[in-house]
Specification:
CATH topology of the largest domain: DHBP synthase
Number of strands: 15
Strand order of the largest sheet: 2-3-7-4-6-5-9-10-11
Bound molecules: adenosine monophosphate, magnesium ion
Radius of gyration: 20 Å
Oligomer: single chain
Strand content: 15-25%
Distance between the termini: 37 Å
CATH architecture of the largest domain: Alpha-Beta Complex
Length: 333
């Protein structure tokens, strides 16, 4: 009988980094922290290694992967950067911004779901960049969780979801931002399109480009998602049913049963055993984003029959990113 495989969690020592970079260079999978969420990385130029990502996550092949690089020069080796891309890269890289651009021939079809475009990002996380540098490869890395479930922001989250399907997890503490990167489609630099909201705001991008940025129409029907196949309506979802309200009002709070959890954005004035929140202070959307996925995971532990969550107010980039994830977490199966 073979024992159930179980992932090993590595501390970020130089020795472990060198070892994990070797695993990547040899076509293996490594889960590692980025500033957004934890990613499940593989050599982006190795089709077999990238296929293993899809297998481990149970991710459908029509949901393309983001390729992570350690420099703009390396981005040039997988994507064709236009002037608009260079402009935003100069300002927002390294950081939580992914650009969709025409791809180069060396990027395997499995990475881009057969599209002529590739999504590329230069992350700011030192450990992740070190893995790219030491492995000598661009790394394809979607979030390190089973497809469709709440994204992981700690090594323990990765272990919970993929501990039996992968062997290597690099522990870099909790991911600072906590929600996935902003995705900007620059295939046509005259018509930039925001595919996913994240920490980099649409306004800041519009200012740098000197152009209006169109919002990708949402929700994307699963069957006709050719523009950006992964932007499915339902995603980031706990098993516990979750419904959204604009604001949790006193009437709604009174109506909730003892098994119904109430998830506020900001700590409410009156709290009870079923009251939870994402941020202590008002308008602390960075805190709300940082705590969102961890909170959804703890609320999904079987204690609660239902989660009532409220939306973040205002138009802050991270408030919009939190709302985008909440909406998709609440979308019907
Ligand atoms: P993630 O779920 O964080 O791995 O983000 C990957 C998402 O980026 C996909 O689900 C797509 O929406 C988008 N994406 C990745 N590659 C491409 C591409 N070549 N063209 C358009 N969108 C892409
Ligand atoms: Mg994901």
């Amino acid at each position: 009988m073979t024992a159930t495989p179980s992932a090993k969690i590595y501390r970020p020592t130089p020795r472990n980094l060198a070892r994990l970079a070797r695993v990547l260079a040899e076509g293996g999978l490594v889960a590692a922290p980025t500033e957004t969420v934890y990613g499940l990385a593989a050599d982006a130029l190795n089709a077999k290694a990238c296929r293993a990502i899809f297998r481990a996550k149970g991710r459908p092949a029509n949901d393309p992967l983001i390729v992570h690089v350690a420099s703009v020069e390396q981005a040039d080796t997988v994507a064709v950067l236009n002037d608009a891309a260079r402009k935003v890269a100069k300002l927002f890289w390294p950081g939580p911004l992914t650009l969709v651009l025409p791809k180069r021939d060396n990027v395997p079809d499995i990475v881009t779901s057969g599209l002529p475009s590739v999504a590329v990002r230069l992350p700011s996380h030192q450990l992740f960049r070190e893995l790219i540098r030491l492995s000598g490869r661009p790394l394809a890395a979607p979030s390190a969780n089973p497809f469709g479930y709440v994204s992981p922001t700690t090594a323990a989250h990765v272990f919970d979801g993929l501990g039996k399907r992968i062997n290597h997890i690099l522990d870099g503490g909790s991911a600072k931002i906590g929600v996935e990167s902003t995705i900007l489609d620059l295939r046509d630099p005259k018509h930039p399109v925001l595919l996913r909201p994240g920490a980099v705001s649409r306004e800041a991008l519009a200012r740098v480009l000197g152009r209006k940025i169109t919002l990708h129409r949402r929700p994307v029907p699963a069957a006709s998602a050719a523009v950006s196949p992964g932007l499915l309506e339902r995603h980031y979802s706990p098993r516990t049913p979750l419904t959204l309200v604009k604001k949790l009002t006193p009437a709604l709070i009174r109506k909730a049963t003892a098994r119904e959890a109430l998830l506020f954005i900001q700590k409410p004035a009156v709290t009870g055993p079923n009251t939870f929140w994402l941020a202590e202070a008002p308008n602390a959307f960075d805190q709300a984003a940082h705590n969102l996925f961890d909170r959804l995971r703890t609320l999904d532990n079987g204690t609660w029959s239902h989660i009532h969550a409220e939306l973040a107010p205002g138009a802050d980039a991270l408030a919009l990113a939190v709302n985008d994830r909440l909406r998709r977490a609440a979308a019907k199966r």
